[in-house]
Amino acid sequence: MSSKDEKNLAQVIDKIATMDEPQRSTMQRVHDIIVSVAPDLKPRIWYGMPAYALSASTPALVTLRNDERLNLALTEKVELRPAGGADGALMPAAWYFETVDEDTEKRIAEIVRAVVS
């Protein structure tokens, strides 16, 4: 890992560490899921949020927000496909969560894998 990647990772870890519980533990778990299933994504801060990109100099693909609710979102830089079915031309790009159970963990992993595949 390059020193810039290490610095960016440290900034993401520090950002998560500033969050109040239980959001901090939940966001740390989501961060761990992302770096585990997509080790090619590089953590960095993007508009003040923990985010993940293909390199330190490319736009973020995945972001994590801690507002009134926790949020996993894909940026406009991801190739999004219409959902079809009842959602027609809508493209799923953000998911809110409060906790991460086993099913949520699996779904987050699927979403992140789809970003990098």
- Helical residue percent band: 25-40%
Determine Rg (CA atoms, Å). Answer: 14 Å
Strand segment tally: 5
Strand content: 15-25%
Instruction: Report the CATH architecture.
Output: Alpha-Beta Complex
- CATH T-level fold name: Aspartate Aminotransferase, domain 1
Rough shape? globular
Number of H/I helices: 3
Biggest pleated sheet: 5 strands, antiparallel
Please state the average pLDDT score: 92
Structural category is alpha+beta
What sequence of helices (H) and strands (E) makes up the elements?
A: HHEEEEEH
**What is the CATH C-level name?**
Alpha Beta
Topology:
Layout: H1 3-17, H2 23-37, E1 42-46, E2 49-53, E3 60-66, E4 70-74, E5 94-97, H3 102-116
Antiparallel strand pairs: 1-2, 2-3, 3-4, 4-5
Explain how this protein is built.
By secondary structure, the protein is an alpha+beta fold. It has a single domain (3-116), classed as Aspartate Aminotransferase, domain 1, CATH 3.90.1150. The chain is 38% helix and 22% strand. It has 3 helices and 5 strands, in the order ααβββββα. Strands 1-2-3-4-5 form a 5-stranded antiparallel sheet, with helices on one face. A hairpin with a 2-residue loop joins strand 1 and strand 2 (49-53). The radius of gyration is 14 Å and the shape is globular. The model has no long low-confidence stretch (mean pLDDT 92).
